[in-house]
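Retro notes
What went well: the complex prediction finally ran end to end.
Inputs used:
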Amino acid sequence: MSHIEITGARENNLKNISLKIPKKQITVFTGVSGSGKSSIVFDTIAAESQRQLNETFTTFVRNRLPKYGQPDADGVENLSAAVVIGQQRIGGNSRSTVGTITDIHSLLRLLYSRIGTPPAGYSNAFSFNDPAGMCPECEGVGRKMTLDLDRALDRSKSLNEGAMLLPNFGVGTWFWKTFAHSGLFDNDKKLADYTESEWETLLRGQGPDVMFETQGGTVPQKYEGLVDKFDRIYIRKDIDTKANREALLEFVSTRTCPLCRGARLNQAALACRIDGRNIADLAAMEARHLVDVVARIDHPIAATMVAAVLERLRHLVSIGLGYLSLDRATTTLSGGESQRIKMVRHLGSSLTDMTYIFDEPTVGLHPRDVRRMNGLLRELRDKGNTVLVVEHDRDVIEIADHVVDVGPHAGAHGGEIVYEGGVAGLHRAGTLTGRHMRHNRPLKAGFREPTGTLTVTGATAHNLKDVTVGFPTGVLTVVTGVAGSGKSTLVNEVFLARHPDAVVIDQSAVSRSIRSNPATYTGLMDEIRRLFAKAGGVSPALFSFNSKGACPQCQGLGIIYTDLAFMDAVTSTCEVCQGRRFREEVLRHTLRGRSISDVLEMTAGEAAEFFTEPKPARVLRAVNEVGLGYLKLGQPLSSLSGGECQRIKLAGELHKTGSVYVMDEPTTGLHMADVRHLLTIMDSLVDAGNTVIAIEHNLDVVKHADWIVDLGPDGGDQGGTVVFEGTPRQLLEAAGSFTAEYLRRDLG
Ligand code: ADP
Ligand code: ADP
Ligand code: ZN
Ligand code: ZN
């Protein structure tokens, strides 16, 4: 058996480690958050694979690719081409759907062009992204934006009084003059008093040429009504590209396209049917129902195509995405859903001897769905690929052929391999992971008494079936249910819309500014600057990245960004300050022997020992409590993972009281040991008089809840109802709940 061999790896916190990873096997990398898993898998293995791949291109191409530096390692041998399947959302535009991105839609098009009746052409005639197939009314988008007249016009006013409320249509503007100077209206007449025909002229009038005054004299111009004008200058020119998009969207309402009724295709394509259904009917069905419909297609020349469609659909279903329809826009998918969709694409590929790297593929998955996903990881392996998975989930670790446990702790206290070998050995290992694999957390003994209830009544968004449910206050509520059951819809859409004062602690980026770091975000930087200023008898402003004390070359960033068109920017350490960010004279000021630059290089854990002053100490305690003690104070927030973003937001809330907090899968990125830590934090939030509502699959969190709201029974149209509300102990007795079933197994 051959191995990927890494010797002397030193990226980030790695302590000169060497390891052998078996090829064509599943290797799971585990260890507490910040221990160094990503430094091995992404920064060493994936980076070196990408670098070697780039070497194979011509100089011309290479000069146009981002430069991958050699990872800090003595050697990385025997690599195969690596594909990283992470949680970045599949952005794209409204033309990118689950069907197009998985290639299932193009297979269906082929199928319709061969055996559909009456024939509509070949396969482009079924593509909503091709002029041959797209609906002429909505140009293949399925929706149409129209001007919302109630918002665009104030009927109690005349043109002269500013009846047109649209941006760029104010009194005196060019657009306003095309109406007011047209001679077609009484400019002092209130719109409410317009006759039927004046109203029609205002909205949809066309030509004839009218003369109207401009600064340069009188010019002929074709008159055009407001609705058509707005359509022509904004809507058709893809509103998304307009700088004042947000402002314009206020005045637009989006409706299903009246011609194709959302099917995106022209009438010829929609008339073409197989077994009575057109291609849009198929695209609108949930994938798991579509499987049955496609399986029944019985036609001699279709067998191969049908088999190819079925294979991909079954992958979608087995990865827990059977509730998605092919026409679902990829822009509306969550991070976990996006990752699984990418996985389906690769499962359909016939490439072998690749290295597939997964970053926590269980994000967003209920224990029931994890088992199915494990099957797909095995399938990738059995095709002859090497599968590397960064994961904390017990059930995934259990299927590993090989485990690499990184630790013992985070940051400077991690960076070593504490266990390497099979799963059986891990169960006996003395590492944090080993200990947690052996011991299941029991159900908690008592549950808090609610202080009141926040109610949602009659919720019907997406798949919710007229849901009425209470969220108790003053306790920890966990919302559970299989993927697609409606958790995010209920909590993130409906609950938040009706209780807008709730504080959302989610995984979205904390800040995109490269100047933000844990110190600035938590307010710690202000305290630190004050302390340095007091010690040196100078102004606190001197110690700001934005002041004249900052290095003039890099403006206090410590690094220089070189932008390459269409590529990620390339960074290099600033040569003037050597990455220290400040001018020499600023760095001469010290606090207890450390310069401002030294302090920014400290981890939050180190800083907590260094700063004993009450204010900074309190902030640092909070950062350490949320398990981010390994972060450097000056590390750009843009380098934080989703889970880390969520925890740093949490750190900023720890001293508050009387709030309602909503969290979406707070255990993302957390090792079993980190989860215990998180539970302590959630407890202290609740004990301080707050309400916490979390969407979560992690059974350790479920067992720690005071109250459970379980949605289901399944995903998509088979979900959307509350199948259980009560304490975790009552959940154990519940029938018809997948969560109950897996909780019983876990405790059993
Ligand atoms: P894990 O994947 O186990 O959570 P990482 O490999 O991401 O851990 O991190 C290991 C250590 O390296 C942590 O202390 C982390 O803060 C640090 N680190 C990771 N990426 C960077 C970076 N780009 N700059 C500075 N420190 C980093
Ligand atoms: P969960 O959070 O439990 O995984 P969701 O609330 O995300 O479930 O999804 C519930 C149902 O609503 C699913 O059928 C899903 O496909 C559908 N859905 C969610 N978001 C959208 C959206 N933006 N557009 C259309 N359907 C959606
Ligand atoms: Zn249309
Ligand atoms: Zn500099």
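What we learned: Residues 174 and 553 are 45 Å apart (CA to CA).
What to try next: split runs per interface for comparison.
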